Every structure is written in C-alpha cells, then in structure tokens.
Amino acid sequence: xxxxxxxxxxxxxxxxxxxxxxxxxxxxxxxxxxxxxxxxxxxxxxxxxxxxxxxxxxxxxxxxxxxxxxxxxxxxxxxxxxxxxxxxxxxxxxxxxxxxxxxxxxxxxxxxxxxxxxx
Amino acid sequence: xxxxxxxxxxxxxxxxxxxxxxxxxxxxxxxxxxxxxxxxxxxxxxxxxxxxxxxxxxxxxxxxxxxxxxxxxxxxxxxxxxxxxxxxxxxxxxxxxxxxxxxxxxxxxxxxxxxxxxxxxxxxxxxxxxxxxxxxxxxxxxxxxxxxxxxxxxxxxxxxx
Lengths: 119, 161
Known about the structure:
The structure holds two protein chains of two kinds. By secondary structure, chain A is mainly alpha-helical. Helix content of chain A is about 80%, strand content about 0%.
C-alpha cells in the first residue's frame, strides 16, 4: 500500500518535472536576451531537476523488488539537496560576469548597479 | 567540541544515505571519513558554537525547506511560466537592502532569491543586494524588498542569526 503511494507520488513529481523542463526550454527560445533567459534556466534547474530527482528517490523506495533501491533513493535525494545549494551559485556567477563585462545588450527599466558603479 | 560532533554527524548521515546501505564496511568507512573531515573543517564551518545547541533552528530550517519547495517556488514558477507565453516582461536591476549579518544567513537569502525564477542576485555591496528582476513593479528598495526577499530574510534571521 505505502509502496504504491510512494511510487505514484514519485512518478507524478517526475512527470511534473518533465513538463517544467519543456516550458523552461520554450522560455529559453522565446525570451529576448541573456538576463531574461537566465530566469527560464532557473525553471529547468529547480522544478526541472530538483523535483524529478526527489521523484526518482520516492519511486525507488516504492519498488521493493528493485536491487539497491536504497542506494538509488539516497543518492538521488542527496544530489537534489546539493543541486539546490549550488545551483544559485552558478546563476549568480553568470549574471555577475555578464554585468561586469557589459557584453549583454538589453534595455532595462532600471539598472541600479550600473548607476551606482558610475557614481 | 560540540562543533566537531555535529559536523561529523552530518557527514556521516550524508555518506550513509548516499551509499544507501548499513553494511559494516559502509559504516566503518563512513566513520573514518566523518572523523577526518570534521577534524579538518569544523573550525572553519562553525563560527558560533552556541547556536548549535538550539535545536529549534533546525526545525525552522526543515519547515522552511518544505514551505520553500512547495508554496513559494510554485508561485514563482507559475509567474515565469505565464510570462513565457504572454511575453509580458519588464526586466531591470533593483537594489534590495539586507539586514541579516551572518554569512550563512546571507548565503541562504542569496540562494533563495536566485533559486526562485524571476529574480537573480547580481552583486552585493554595502548591505544591499542588486537583484535582476524579470518584472520590475517598483524600483524603490523597500517596496522591492517586500516583493522579493522579505519572507526569506525573516526565516534566515530566525535560522542563522
């Protein structure tokens, strides 16, 4: 009973993650410049990667005949947590580098960082 | 002494759950590795040992994790998904004041802001975060803070400060 609940809950998370990955990919194509695309990439990074990994860990716990299911579940869960901690560092470094090098052409409503740097 | 035990325990739990078994071999290697790692790194990782003695901080962190992954992230994701199809964007970089003092609290706020789609921290200077925002509803720092980071900061101060 509890196993089938875990399995179906994990499958649901897995499928939801796939849908968000697809939407993130559409956003990547449609958005106009680097900074806005970064937000679409975040969709793929959190609900598109962390959530399916947690889904895999629940699915693995829900299949008793799977050999090494605790290893799969534990490794997926730890990877999900690590991804949640390190993913923002990557996004932040990309945005920081792009702003420092001024290599992105965009028309912001307001750019306080540039204003403060020019002061 | 407390900090060595806590860091070692965390390493032990992560190792055993990653290995996914409780065989004597795994437990022995986990013990050896957690002892070595905590002896080497605990003095850099833990600044204030007194906070480790307050277990309610961990409970708030766990509550925050669930609230963040379900409610906060879901709202932010749906907002950006909506903008993917309507293309209703007004990007810009706003200033957001930060009151949290400790490095862990600031990292948690920065990570939470950047992990929500729609906001990315670009730089940090003099108690201000510069946040790239997909739809700038107000360039005023205090109003931007209310929309972006107020909830994260309340939790971060309770957990780490």
